[in-house]
């Protein structure tokens, strides 16, 4: 089953949007298989954002992600990678569609509340970077 990695960034946690983000993914019908609140190390932040290391905002991005706790999650479901990107909205919240998380709650590209993997290969890389196998739980509803 397809999985994606999501991270509620420090701004999302500080604005008390953790419940709202989880609610949207639960309501859509995806399955939560991994969840933790962590203070990110500089090493992990730099590895996670390695693709942006030459960009002028890389240093400030790593500073921000390591500045206070984030909520890291893995969600599972058919087509979850692309669907999560739609639920999250475009990178710049000023151009994200209303109805998306960033479109509804964000105003700044550097404070865009949440990260979601951009492709299935990226999701696999990010999940293994942030979670051990033991921290992921495969389950199905049985009520
Ligand atoms: P994210 O989806 O986590 O992936 C990379 C992040 O870099 C992105 O969200 C933004 O938060 C951040 N980012 C992208 N462009 C800029 C920019 N011009 N200035 C500051 N941060 C940026």
From TrEMBL:
Residues binding ATP: 9, 57, 85, 91, 102, 112
Superkingdom of origin: Bacteria
Entry annotated with the keyword Cell inner membrane: no
GO molecular function: ATP binding; metal ion binding; nucleoside diphosphate kinase activity
Catalytic activity from the UniProt record: dZDP + ATP = dZTP + ADP; a ribonucleoside 5'-diphosphate + ATP = a ribonucleoside 5'-triphosphate + ADP; a 2'-deoxyribonucleoside 5'-diphosphate + ATP = a 2'-deoxyribonucleoside 5'-triphosphate + ADP
UniProt entry tagged with the keyword Cytoplasm: yes
Every Nucleoside diphosphate kinase-like domain range: 1-138
Gene3D superfamilies found in the cross-reference section: Nucleoside diphosphate kinase-like domain
Cofactor(s) this protein requires: Mg(2+)
GO cellular component, one term: cytoplasm
Intracellular or extracellular location(s): Cytoplasm
Active-site residues per Swiss-Prot or TrEMBL entry: 115
SMART domains (alphabetical): NDK (SM00562)
A biological process term (GO) from this entry: GTP biosynthetic process
Keyword tags: ATP-binding, Cytoplasm, Kinase, Magnesium, Metal-binding, Nucleotide metabolism, Nucleotide-binding, Phosphoprotein, Transferase
Assembly, per entry: Homotetramer.
PANTHER family: NUCLEOSIDE DIPHOSPHATE KINASE
Physiological role: Major role in the synthesis of nucleoside triphosphates other than ATP. The ATP gamma phosphate is transferred to the NDP beta phosphate via a ping-pong mechanism, using a phosphorylated active-site intermediate. (Microbial infection) Catalyzes the phosphorylation of dZDP to dZTP, when the bacterium is infected by a phage that produces the substrate for the synthesis of dZTP (2- amino-2'-deoxyadenosine 5'-triphosphate), which is then used by the phage as a DNA polymerase substrate.
Name of the protein described by the UniProt record: Nucleoside diphosphate kinase
Gene source species: Aphanothece hegewaldii CCALA 016
């Amino acid at each position: 089953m397809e999985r994606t990695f999501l991270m509620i960034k420090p701004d999302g946690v500080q604005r008390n949007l953790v419940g709202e983000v989880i609610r949207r993914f639960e309501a859509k019908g995806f399955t939560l298989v991994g969840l933790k609140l962590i203070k990110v190390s500089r090493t992990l932040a730099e590895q996670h954002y390695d693709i942006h290391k030459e960009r002028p905002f890389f240093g400030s991005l790593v500073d921000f992600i390591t500045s206070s706790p984030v909520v890291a999650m893995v969600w599972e479901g058919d087509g979850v990678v692309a669907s999560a990107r739609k639920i999250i909205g475009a990178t710049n919240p000023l151009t994200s569609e209303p109805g998306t998380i960033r479109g509804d709650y964000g105003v700044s590209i550097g404070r865009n509340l949440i990260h979601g993997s951009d492709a299935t290969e990226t999701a696999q890389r990010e999940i293994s970077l942030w979670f051990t196998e033991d921290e992921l739980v495969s389950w199905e509803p049985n009520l």
